[in-house]
Design brief:
The protein is an alpha+beta fold. It is 67% helix and 9% strand.
Amino acid sequence: MNLSQALQLALDNNPTIEAANAELSAIEAESRQAGLWDNPTVGADFEDFGGDRRAIGDADTTLSVRQTIPVGGDRARARDVATAWAQAARANLAQTRSDLLASTAQAYIATFAASETLAVRQELLELANNSSSAILARVEAGRASPIERSRAEILVGLATIAAQDAETAQRQARNRLYAIWSGDEVDVALGSPLQSLDVINYRTAAPADWISNNPELVGLRAVTLARSQEIRRERAEAIPDLTIGAGWRRYGGTDESAFIATVEMPIPVLNRNQGGIAAAASRENGARFDEDAARRTLMARFAAAAGRLERARTTFSLLDENILPATQTALDGAQFAYREGALDVLNLLDIQRSYFDARINLISARAELASAAIELDALAGTPQLNQLAAPNSTEAAQ
């Protein structure tokens, strides 16, 4: 299983995306509801019946229809507010998706590194056991000091502990990855994630440009817009709505009839919605401060992530190009010297352990490099991970 397939599996099986989609559908439904006019009302009045008058047939009867007309445009403004909040919900969905892709990729990287580390530790343990058997035979034959047996037992014990720790770490990493997928164990071999990631293009990007499409920042921009629309809505609500009515009246005493018309409007003397306007303005200011604070935080995170990636790249290059080849050369020389009788087995084991430690350090450096690249991609809105998660991506087809 490659990284692309792991990302697709997470999107298909993780409930957080479905929950965010459900919330988006609800907010979009609310945006369709907002801005609708109030329903017209129909009424019937029966006056002056009973008492000294006859039955209800002699009452004055009025049938009317009334409709409230939003004069200040508050319904349209309400629709604009709901539309803006729907846009914020879409940004929240994008952030949920981005967070899921990033956490899946990080879990994938940790699991792959843990599996590689376990393989190296098991290889070293097997080598230590074989060497210990050879040392024990030499001690029993009297060709080596009993101290060498104790030293060999120590090396085997340390290799055993390291292998057990690596096995536990691999199990924990795989469980974290399985929890993102579905919670069920999936018996698959993972492919190297580093080849799927571009770790170069961040160098040419300005921090402000890099984070411009970050879903958190996009969401806060949408919130600021929604708050601005709320000010316009509150101002529109300060303008009184007009209620008009029309009807027909029958006079019971004379059996005459006539049409009636009514016009009503509140007088904005005491309540001009001044409190609502002030509250909306304060919330807009708060939203702008939140957006600016998030932008600064993201730029600081970009600087830290870029530095982390550069350090990881340097460490990986040194290990891959210098340190590991040097330990390989030292191991080849030690093995030759041991075969010629110029080196004892315990010193050979020490050199072998240095070689295996270099391999493990290289695995850790590769994982750190990939993890830093994922962090930078997440700050940009996970463009690489979104491309890898697409069903028609190049890696997914492999």
